[in-house]
């Protein structure tokens, strides 16, 4: 291979459920190709999930390949990434082991703010049978992790959006009426939760207007039941007391970013929307992906311990309490979000200033695609 030929990367993505697996892999593939000049094949078992996120976007340098029993690659690239433990197919693994120079083999893990991540990031794991080494690569919130996905122009695009009244163009592109003047603008992306009905009641009973954009997602059905209205994507806004619910279709990742930038408070979930809400530098409420034996509660606590550092009272207590309500565990059923909403709302301005400081701090870290590309370079002999 000529020295100047771009490195070939294979990323393997299995969609477990939802959109996060595909969402992270698409962002990573796109950034590696666009910003690092790499050639990426993205093997994905559910291309339809990816299509919903890309909104028709194609990227030179990213080749999307359906990954199924009939389409198993056997020509390993120089770099192989198993996203979230999606094991590469056996014939591919065998071909990796036969290569004159075995690929740099990465296990890209889920994001966690827990302290142990720093100790495990970058560790080798020799294959038990084959002459191959896999490297653990952890995204994270500190310099001693792989960092977070962030496109190099993200902050500039965000600043331009705010300076150019980008929200007005967003409402036009989405073909929806602008939010009522003076309304608190929310976006809602969540897993089904008991506490949503009470929260919707609180929003409807609010003394000031609240506008909530709901891209079609797992809580849309719950909201329909609460509102007793179809709330179909493309429908007119639904009004109940002070609350305006604006149904939207599931939008592309770029439009979703813009929605986060346009709102005053974002309800996000999982991994990728959670990170994007932090780049939006606006207050957010995170619903973590629920795990067996309440493992998600420790992860949530680890993140809040980092995030709440430096946030004054009573905002810190309000945000902590709201997260406890928004994230059920086996011992804590949640139905009180409506009752504690006023405390969160009262802290809105402190939360906003804090979200800005947090974003600025995170932006000083190298982004995940860069740390990963550099890590790989260091392993290529
Ligand atoms: O969809 P998720 O719940 O994904 C989850 C998590 O990744 C979780 O960690 C993982 O274990 C599980 O999947 C399998 O939430 P997440 O991670 O925020 O991914 C949603 C993606 O969808 C993200 O890239 C943003 C994008 N999105 C859009 O592009 N348009 C939309 O309208 C919305 C609401 C989201």
Describe the structure.
- With 381 residues, this protein is an alpha/beta fold.
- 41% of the residues lie in helices and 17% in strands.
- It has helices at residues 20-36, 47-54, 90-98, 116-120, 154-163, 166-173, 196-204, 220-227, 253-262, 272-279, 295-307, 315-326, 337-346, 348-363, 368-379, and strands at 8-13, 39-44, 62-66, 79-83, 104-108, 124-126, 133-137, 184-188, 210-215, 238-240, 243-248, 265-269, 284-287.
- Helix 7 crosses helix 13.
- It is globular and about 70 Å long.
- It starts with 7 loop residues before the first strand and ends with a helix.
- Bound molecules: 2'-deoxy-thymidine-beta-L-rhamnose.
- The site of 2'-deoxy-thymidine-beta-L-rhamnose has 24 residues, from helix 1, helix 9 and helix 10.
- 2'-deoxy-thymidine-beta-L-rhamnose (TRH) is lined by residues 16-21, 23, 53, 110, 189, 215, 217, 250-253, 256, 269-274, 289.
């Amino acid at each position: 291979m000529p020295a100047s030929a771009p490195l070939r990367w294979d990323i393997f993505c299995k969609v477990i459920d939802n959109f996060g697996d595909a969402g992270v892999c698409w962002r990573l593939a796109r950034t590696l190709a666009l910003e690092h000049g790499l050639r990426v094949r993205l093997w994905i078992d559910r291309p339809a999930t990816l299509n919903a996120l890309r909104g028709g976007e194609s990227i030179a340098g990213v080749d999307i390949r359906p990954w199924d029993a009939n389409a198993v690659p056997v020509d390993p690239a120089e770099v192989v990434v198993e996203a979230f433990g999606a094991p590469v197919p056996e014939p591919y693994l065998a071909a990796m082991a036969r290569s004159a120079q075995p690929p740099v083999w990465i296990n890209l893990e889920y994001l966690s703010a827990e302290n142990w991540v720093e100790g495990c990031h970058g560790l080798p794991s020799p294959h038990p049978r084959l002459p191959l080494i896999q490297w653990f690569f952890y995204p994270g919130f500190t310099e001693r992790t792989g960092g977070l996905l962030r496109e190099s122009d993200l902050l500039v695009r965000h600043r331009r959006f705010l300076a150019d009244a980008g929200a007005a163009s967003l409402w036009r592109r989405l073909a929806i009426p602008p939010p009522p003047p003076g309304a608190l603008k929310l976006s809602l992306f969540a897993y089904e939760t008991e506490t949503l009905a009470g929260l919707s009641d609180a929003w409807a009973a609010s003394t000031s207007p609240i506008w909530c954009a709901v891209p079609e997602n797992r809580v849309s059905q719950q909201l329909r039941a609460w509102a007793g209205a179809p709330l179909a994507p493309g429908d007119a806004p639904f009004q109940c007391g002070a609350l305006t619910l604006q149904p939207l279709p599931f939008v592309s990742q770029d439009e979703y970013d813009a929605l986060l930038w346009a709102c005053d408070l974002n309800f996000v979930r999982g991994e990728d929307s959670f990170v994007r809400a932090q780049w939006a530098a606006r207050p957010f409420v995170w619903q973590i992906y629920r795990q067996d034996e309440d493992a998600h509660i420790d992860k949530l606590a680890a993140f809040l311990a980092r995030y709440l550092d430096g946030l004054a009272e009573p905002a810190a207590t309000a945000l902590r309490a709201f997260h406890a309500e928004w994230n059920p565990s086996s011992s804590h059923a949640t139905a009180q979000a409506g009752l504690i909403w006023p405390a969160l709302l009262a802290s809105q301005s402190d939360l906003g200033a804090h979200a800005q400081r947090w974003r600025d701090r995170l932006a000083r870290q190298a982004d995940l695609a860069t740390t990963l590309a550099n890590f790989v370079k260091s392993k290529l002999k």
